[in-house]
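In the previous chapter we treated chains in isolation. Here, by contrast, the input contains two separate entities that must be folded as one system, with a combined length of 293 residues.
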Amino acid sequence: MRSIARLWPVVFAMLLGVFIVYGAGFASPASLHNAAHDSRHSFAFPCH
Amino acid sequence: MLGRILLPAVIVGVLAGGLLTALQQIEVVPLILEAETYENGVVASGGEAQAHADGTHDHGASAGEAQSLDSENGLERTGYSLLANVVTAAGFGLLLSAAFTLLGVAGRRVDWRKGLLWGLAGFGAVQLAPALGLPPGLPGSAAVALEARQTWWLLTAVLTALGLGLIAFAPCPYLRVLGVVPIVIPHLVGAPLAEPSAGLVPHELAVRYVYASLLTNAVFWLALGALTAHLHGLFAARREQAAAA
């Protein structure tokens, strides 16, 4: 049970990582797209 | 525990994101700027210099928003890119840091050399595998609907990571061999591609960009993997020292 409790921070960190990458690379609001435009192209994330 | 996962990711985000921004200035950003002259029709119409100020960059957003990105102040634009690179690097660093913590719970340690391998795997899953179907594209390149490409990209990255994970860590050999299956599936399905002739950017420019983007990202991912592993080990060792004292 204790070892399962130790995994929660790992799960939270992974979800946060996915959320951050999605926000920077995929989210569609124009302000995010514009700010991250060159970064998205450089990472080869599909962009406009 | 959460702090030990987050802190290396934040430091790595700043370091690797900064490195990436510097690397992008060599070839990637100049190619993007050149492609925008074709995208904005400056080359075709014989216009000059106003390509960025014309506000056509963002393909549908208001002219004011687009102009804020495309202001002639290159420093501002580079600043936004630096911020986006740092945030994205921190996000990827967080995923790596969480994976290293998971390995630590299982009693396995990761040093910077193994971090290089993780970086290589990250490059394979996030850059190389999606690029096999959807090559890194410049502004003005031919492309189908964004949602279809994003879905295929995400599917490919996740399945490739899953496949590489199985090959590296599955307990039995059969499962390891089966790791090839999720890696191959997205390429059997096929990426949503547009007619290449529909793009505005010259073919030679597009090809140069593919190499520039992949090479830049390869260096970035190797640095990201090695740095995250090194910092993660550093924080783990300090904690053990503190616990022993």
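Chain B has one domain: 2-143+194-244. The mean pLDDT of chain B is 86. Compare these points with the single-chain example from earlier in the chapter.
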